[in-house]
Amino acid sequence: MSLTTFPGGVDPSPANASITKVTMPALADRKRQGKPISALTAYDYATSRIADEAGIDLILVGDSLAMVVLGHENTLSITVDEMLHHTRAVHRAVRRALVVADMPFGSYHGAVAEGLANAIRFIKEAGAEAVKIEGARIELVRALTDAEIPVVGHLGLTPQSIHRMGGYRVQARTAETVLRLRADAQALADAGAGVLVLEGVPREVAAAITADLPIPTIGIGAGPDCDGQILVFHDLLNLTFAPPAKFVRRYADAGSIMRSAIEHYRDDVEQRAFPSDEESYHLPEPVRRVLEEKDAAQHKTGTLRKI
Ligand code: KIV
Q: Beta 130-134 vs 98-102: how paired, if at all?
């Protein structure tokens, strides 16, 4: 493909003429320029399209979809095939944002070669532009980087470690664990990770790591000093069914809007107020006339027969 014809690798059709694709190097530039990065999870065509059109820089097809979309208790059971299915839908919708796919639990926890093979599937079969992995898996990050696969690291509260952590708890609260987290963050960046998600860590720790690293940090429950922020789509819009975590800001109550719209629809159906005549299709006038004439003729014959 010619880079002259396709600047930034984006479809050059008129609809996309003014779009500058967000890339991993572009995110690194944003850190250097001190311009915050907006990130959001999304899992399907409609919501990712809205997020992309709203100007979100990075869309993560997070394994949180196991919980917020599929209703599982935690993220552990989601499979590579399920994550691929959702990543494809997001890829079809997004024009500008960087699409990052979350590697699910078990898909990169064994041999490096297996992690690499699974990551390649996300790039090749689903259109992801980077993969996210939890924990300080330095050898794997090196292998992915060598294979030209951009990596987003994820440290702190890593939901795939729920059983080891004993629940979703804020991490790095002692001097020892803070120092380990800072060393892990540095090691991930040295191994080639291009972005680092910091989840559920004290603000001071996230600020120190953000200052330490040349790569952007994206915080969730990590305070305002990161280079960017990410939220789960369903948290931002109140599409969840439990009280939100402390770090969640609800920007709209889409849950209430949807519930009341659906109740209104149900009432209209029950009262035969939906659909109206304007919402119905009609026969073309000549066809209607022919049918009416036929009906009238049949009616007449029926009447004569009775006589
Ligand atoms: O799966 C997810 O949604 C995530 C974000 C919380 C960073 O990993």
A: parallel
